[in-house]
Amino acid sequence: MARYELVKRSVALITLTNPPVNALSSAVRHAMAKSMEQALNDPKVTAVVICGENGRFCGGADIREFAGPLRGPPLVPLLDAIEAGEKPVVAAIEGVALGGGFELALVCHYCIAHFKVNHFVLKIIKAVGMSRAAKPLSSRRVSMLTTPCPPDLDALLEVVTMEVKKKARGVMAPLACIQAVRAAATMPYSKGIKRESELMATLFNSGQARALQYCFFAQRTAGKWTLPSGAQWNNSKPREIRSAAIIGLGTMGRGIVVSLARVGISVIAVESEKKLLETGKQMVIGMLERDAKRRGVSASLNLLKFTLSLQDLKDVDLVIEAVFEDMALKKRVFQELSKVCRPATLLCTNTSGLDVDALAGVTDRPHLVVGMHFFSPAHVMKLLEVVCGPRSSSETIATAMSLGKRMGKVSVAVGNCPGFVGNRMLKPYMDQATFLLEEGATPEQIDKALEDFGFAMGVFRMSDLAGLDVGWRIRKESGLTGPDVDPKNPPRRRHGRRYCPIPDMVCEQGRFGQKTGRGWYMYDKPGGTNAKPDPLIQNLLEMYRSRYAIQPRNISDQEIIERCLFALANEGFRILEDGIAARPEDIDVIYLFGYGFPRHRGGPMFYASMVGLERVLERLEHYHQAHPDVPHLEPSPLLKKLVACGSPSVQTWREHIKTMHSHL
Ligand code: NAI
Questions:
Q1: Where does ligand 1 bind, in terms of residues with CB under 6 Å?
Q2: Do 469 and 593 share a domain, yes or no?
Q3: Please, are residues 159 and 152 in contact by the beta-carbon 8 Å criterion?
Q4: Which of 105, 384, 536, 539 could form a disulfide with 404 if both were Cys (CB 3.0 to 4.6 A apart)?
Q5: What is the number of domains present in the chain?
């Protein structure tokens, strides 16, 4: 936990040994306290060097210990003892010094840091030798330093506070940090530290801390995928992928090529026409060059090949199809790939919601077919849904999961159903937003409520960014809107349930979002990003309500949040029930990394558990009673079952789900 050595006969070397980041667990703190005591009491020791094993100084507190009561010596008195000690202590910092690890570095009398130097610690010991040992330490103690306090401190902190509030809406910790800085600048050290401890205690006991800790573990849990067949992350071996092919160099294909090439995988990119191939090629090269420049490496252009012929793919290890969202086209591509590629090639699809097993069914290797659902822009967004069909082999799933990890993605294994997890849940959430428009709300009111909740963008701003035409095309193809709709259909009902045609009416006016300069909002120009409320949308809503004799009512922010987010979580419960996601953590990770769900709320399922399942159930029942033609508001059986079991904590839901049927 902490190794003590006497080196060069006079330097005590204390090495933190708690892999992977040498976190300050109770055992580490205990060993450090003992080592420091030994060093300070040993007359031979004239200086102390603290370092971390394996090139990492210290990653801070051990978050696994947060759940229980404090064990072992607390950190602050240990840090005080180091700082007040009569022997110089040097922090030899490599890799990371985060949180408590950074505090440890600060109380040392000297800090020497380097990203990577061979024999770094040895060099420091040599330099420390005796030269520092004799010098007085008073000027080196952090508690003795005076903090310069600028005369305009209040104004300065006010500006910073405004910026932080905008960037980290509703998040407590950054604001507490500003208050701690104010304390440091205006109070003597001992009082400042006391104030900081108070702030820390408030944060530590907050729901936000619990949510953030949950997110940390949920992300790790997602990597440990498991299937009812018994296949799981630790008994399925992934294949090594050296070469890949991407079909379709549109929005998604380009980003996927970049994600693969920058981790050293050679990529063949295929387009359907020469001009599109050339455009796609120029875009990919530009993206890779910008990416390489940003990371200070050279662009791996030599790994790329561009072609119009599928015949060139016969030897690749894996193919990812990213052509238009059109089942007939995708089936043709998969049939073709099945003929061209060698029998061992994995065939993957980036479809956002089509049936992965139907695609597997047209190939000669259904066990080697899996969905790899990237998010836009694919080279930036961290999430990857790995969609496992009933015939996908465990090796295929393991390979897709491991490839995702190699590309720096957070990969989550999910089952095969329309929309998978993320997009399936999005539908009830967006439906509620448009129903609220009908009933009297405005896009800006709904967006503001969601943004105040913590989303980076409300649902209408997000739709404008993504483009409104995509959903419109899907609704037309599904027979929900357009000339094919049965004229006998009541206007605000489709397929036996409530339907809001306002999004279709917006699209009919050529308003496709940011790209056309008009959508739910208006923008300065096509491609503009500065959203302003549009009086034309206001008019459209008023006309719509009067046409259908809807009396608009005042809708509270609370109703907006409850209807949008409880409908979202309710679909999450159904997904768990259906076995499409194995655990609530998987759903939360998908929403955190793919849909901008605020991290300090922990994800939709954790949020529901924090609100209280009983309350979520009661509110859903209430809203379903008011809107019986909206089946998404009808509480799911799993939610009812969990409430009947006394609303257990989210980490134990799995036990209750296990008893239910699973499709994964
Ligand atoms: P896109 O329209 O930007 O690009 C599709 C590309 O495929 C076009 O460049 C087209 O020329 C090419 N293509 C069509 N048929 C082809 C063929 N037979 N051979 C070679 N190339 C062909 O579409 P986008 O947005 O990139 O979507 C692609 C897939 O990714 C779809 O299945 C979509 O649902 C899915 N997806 C899209 C997301 C998005 O935000 N745009 C997010 C996640 C998935």
A1: 247-253, 270-272, 276, 322-325, 329, 333, 350-352, 374-376
A2: no
A3: no
A4: 384
A5: 5
